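Reading a protein record of the kind used here takes only a little practice. Think of the row as the fold of the chain written in a discrete alphabet. With that in mind, consider the following protein and its fold in token form:
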Amino acid sequence: MNLDFSQIVPYIPFMLEGIWVTLGFVIIAIVIGFFIGSFIALVKISHIKVLRWIADFYTSVFRGTPLILQLMFVYYAVPQVLGYDISPFLSAILTFGLNSSAYVSEIIRAGIEAVDKGQREAAMALGIPYRPMMIKIILPQAMKNILPALMNEFITLTKESAIVSVINYLDLMRRAQVVGAELYRNFEAYIFVGAIYYVMVMMLTVLGKLLERRLKKSD
């Protein structure tokens, strides 16, 4: 096997820029997913059957279809149906945000339902309205349980972010493709970028474990 990493050295800064490009849209997507997912989770535990059905259908669609298909649908269908020339960046954050919200909604719903029912019953007995009860009593306790799961979702999105290269978004993966095509040395570029992905994921994994330990100590 003839590997020559010296040829990709001049392109290293170009590829390293992809770290911030990748993390940038992933962070925005997880924030969008968190807020939409929180709303959907509250709908799922509501007493309105129609809204619960819509929320369950939304979740099943985004969890039951490939992420790359959702990305292609947003990138190509929006201009065709709405006449709006959507950018790769906006397509990426919209797709990943909506996809993440489906998973986050289940995480938050499970976290809320894991809170002792006695907390809710006591709040209702004291006459505390539903909204203040959820914001001040239930959700803070649920968040403590779901933060590790949310961190895992962030890690998953970071790994899956490589698929945005198919719409020519200059993330880490796309930059490796550009360098490989320029030098006709794809393997070296992919190994280098693969190592970056690995380090990123390992750092996020360690951060997640530290967060989990801190939460356990605060119990």
Notes: The domain at 20-169 is CATH 1.10.3720.10 (MetI-like fold). The radius of gyration is 21 Å. The mean pLDDT is 87. The longest helix spans residues 12-44.
